[in-house]
Amino acid sequence: MKYRDYYKILGIGPSADADEIKRAYRKLARKYHPDINATEEAEAKFKDVNEAYEVLKDPERRAAYDQLGKPETGVQDGFRPPPDWEGGFGFSGGSPEDAEAFSDFFETLFRRQRQPFGAEAGIRGADQHARLQLEIADAYRGATRVLTFRVPHVAADGSTQLQERSITVQVPMGITEGQHIRLAGQGLTRPEGGAAGDLFLEVSFAPHPVYRSDGRDLYLDLPVTPWEAALGGKVMMPTPDGKVALTIPANARSGQKLRLKGKGLPGTPAGDIFATLRIVNPKVTTEEARRVFEQMAREVPFNPRAGIGG
User: What domains, with CATH codes, occur in the chain?
Assistant: First the structure.
């Protein structure tokens, strides 16, 4: 998706006031209006001008757009909103046909409310969307988090400011990555008043040094010694919910996957933990250790390359 510079489209600077924005829009709208200029290029520019004006004429949308900032030229064609983008600013006014003319960039940043176009009074505020990063362990026990972010606010004098807002979030036990938490009435309010929209938090897990999650299942690589793999037995394995005893079968091989049923993230049903065995050889740093390995080499008939003709 390509970043759109709405100020450049209207030929104004970021410090332009509301009157300058309106004058620039009217000038360009007359220049490229289909009734005056019937070329395909003019039609495309007319749509661009209308889209830029829809954003910059609205104090809240403009503040949010300015908060986003312009990405470096080298990444414009692959632009994506940052992970903490608080999008979801509503679209109202105009006709359905006008709305459909807007670009993917506009739609991604300013999702339209499913309300009748032109209906101003009584429309609920726009929904907001943000991300909430948790630890995997939080999904086992639930958690309480305080989320702080900035939202546009229209002051009494008509100016738009970004205000910090903090919300306490109760994270339920068993939540999974990618799941959404809906906080009703915690979204944006309209300057005209009315009910607030909702806040939707998309859950992600912070990278963990041991575990990888997939739905409710967890995966890890479990180091074992050569004798644990050869003889089998129980080893203590850490989980986000505490240590558990894992039975290693005799003659286990490196890369073998063992399953702990129901030990993954809580739920109905609970997920599983899948441990992939990785045999780790000790370093031979003493004469005694060297003698042990030499004895094994003499007394244990084993050729790991026999299957490839070695």
Answer: 6-109 (1.10.287.110), 128-205 (2.60.260.20), 212-308 (2.60.260.20)
